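Run folding on both entries below.
>entry_1
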Amino acid sequence: MEGEKIRVWTKQHENVWKILQEKGRFIQQKRYVAGDLGDQAGIMREAYDWLAKNSPDVKNKPADVEYPVWVSFKKETTMLKEPGTVILELEVDPAIITHVNIEKWGAILNYSYIPADKADAERHHALLEAYGVSDTKAYMSQFYPEIKREIRESWKRLFDPDILIGSDLDYGNIWEIRIEWVKGLVEE
């Protein structure tokens, strides 16, 4: 027996809607993530590689999927529609969604440490001050491997709902979009 479904929204390139209509399924591929960022794309892909490998739901990731698809739990928190994009309204089983705190994800995109608590944040800040570096500089440099390892280890806290930095605004990840989940296109 299937559980109760929930509505979520996702902003995608208009070609995603065409793919869904033609193939019945869309999966996110590396070449589409940060494709418009040029030289910076590799930096963003490193964070997405980590996300795809460390998701608590990685055991359910289909073999052909490279990255997850982002969804919003509220229509009004979906990224704004712009030319060349569509916003899909989906109805899915909530069990297939991995919750992601957007503030913690932003820390990962900035190669920052996610502290366990206030004392841990103070300890980490003191460490950075002692070396005269920032998280980003330590992460991007080959000269601070212990700090880089500590930063990457802290990213596991992305999936801990009891650890918050900033807001408690959650988004979600799903591994694919199926045409039967689409309940409509959001018109503005």
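>entry_2
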Amino acid sequence: MTGARGQALSWKVADGVVELALHREPCNEIGSQTLDELEKFISALEDSEGGAHALIIHSDVKSGFCAGADLRELYRRSQAISKEAAVKGVREYLGRIHRVMNAIDASPLTTIAAVHGVTFGGGLELALVCDLIIADKMARFCFPELRLGLIPGFGGIPRLKRDLGNAVVRDLLLTGRSFNTTKAQQIGMVSQVVGEGEALRAARATAAQLGKFDRATAAAAKKFIKPIPYEELQQEIDIFCELFTRPAVEEGLKRFVESTDAQPYLP
């Protein structure tokens, strides 16, 4: 795995650390193009995990880590010829996303999300698959899907429940409010808060420290303390697809698509 650059993301390897950089403007929305490139990255990662000990995921986009799913694309999916066709397309898409997320979650590498700015929806779900989240002090975290009549669909609910418990899940899911880094660290979602613009530097320093330890031991410890809730993840897909057929969802997506706000994903 020497590295590659696509339209939405790129990756490289240096000193046993894989760095995956997101760079799709305006805020790394995850659509078909990003998913295609993530699948290529996962394939390359699995072929070369023996030569690395850590993975860092970060964003080169100034506005933030990731605003979540590409809702304009999701709206187009809702306009399929029939509801059955629309749901089939969404289910297939979510299945692909889950395979990518599960692969990162289960990787024997120690994985670090270095986040800043907007870390919403699917972006928060991507961060949650990582073992550690290092955030600069300006980062904000949110599950805004309720405004669209949906639940998070990229695996966020089962993973947040696994890591933090139901109280935090209910707060983020049912209120739609955002958390700042202070709150995120207090509840245990973020392992380290650093100065503005310092998240990637801190992640690299952490990855260098990890390289001092035996990889097999670290992988065994991770597998023991971080089980993947496959059954609940499948239930999440089922519930998302059931909700997706409701008129309220189409209306919510349409409002988002037609919004003239510069950053319509903000709560």
